[in-house]
Design a protein that fits this description.
two-stranded antiparallel ribbon, 17 strands, 0% helix, globular
Length: 253
């Protein structure tokens, strides 16, 4: 407004290396290591204060197994990972302004299962367990410095899971229904305020009218459950989407 100008240059680089070993024709073992440097927010919406923040740095190590079975009709994956992030943005509980935390680590297990059953039935399932914590984060509360080391970051559930069942019919019609589960989370970095977990039911209906035209109907939160999508504090929650319907037309060319 007053014609002032600020300028900041941010430089970073990312790389990834991986290795896959085929134990058998159906079973593979893989590992990868990757790094990342990301901006703390969208470059378009950076405030003057956020321009002074450094890039967020991360390193990830992952090991996993993938296997096909049942003559290729089934597939499962099991992966374990370790992530270290530095210079993350968190909310100050008093001023509600953004701060950069020192370091956060996450250790997790993820599993997926895909099954193509008889009569055009298909099952997809996945689940994850994660242990996330601050390693180095001193927060100013009421003029005093409080260590949040060992606390779980806000809005990070320990467990999540999804289950989806799909059925194909004649004339290019298919229908599906699924469950989304998210465990309870903390609403603050002090881990004093919690957000309840939730389970949501979704459904879809599709019709391949022509080889290149597909009609679809998507129903989110079919049972119209009330749940919290994101918590900014113990007093301010963003509620999840109510029951909603989306009609779509897909055309391939």
């Amino acid at each position: 407004i007053d014609g002032s100008r600020t300028d900041r240059s941010l430089n970073g680089g990312n790389w990834r290396a991986g290795l896959v070993f085929a134990v058998t024709d159906e079973l593979s073992l893989y590992g990868q290591y990757s790094t990342s440097e990301d901006g703390v927010n969208s470059l378009i919406t950076l405030s003057p204060a956020q321009q002074n923040f450094d890039l967020t740095e991360a390193k990830q190590t992952e090991l996993g197994l993938k296997q096909l079975f049942w003559d290729g009709r089934g597939e499962w994956t099991l992966a374990a990972y370790h992530i270290v992030k530095k210079k993350l943005l968190v909310d100050n509980p008093v001023t509600h302004e953004k701060e950069q935390a020192g370091q956060q680590t996450s250790d997790g297990l993820e599993a997926t299962l895909e099954l193509a059953l008889a009569n055009q039935w298909h099952v997809s399932a996945n689940a994850s367990v994660v242990r996330a914590k601050y390693d180095d984060f001193d927060q100013t509360v009421g003029g005093q410095t409080v260590s949040r080391a060992g606390n779980r970051p806000a809005n990070v559930p320990r467990r999540t899971a999804n289950l989806w069942l799909n059925k194909g019919f004649d004339h290019g019609v298919d229908a599906g229904m699924g469950l989304r589960y998210v465990d309870a989370r903390y609403a603050d970095t002090a881990n004093n305020q919690t957000v309840p977990g939730f389970t949501v039911v979704d459904a879809t209906l599709g019709w391949q009218v022509l080889p290149d035209v597909r009609l679809g109907l998507q129903l989110n939160n079919l049972l119209d459950r009330t749940y919290v999508a994101t918590a900014h504090s113990g007093e301010q929650w963003l509620m999840g989407e109510q029951r909603s319907y989306f009609a779509t037309v897909d055309y391939s060319f």
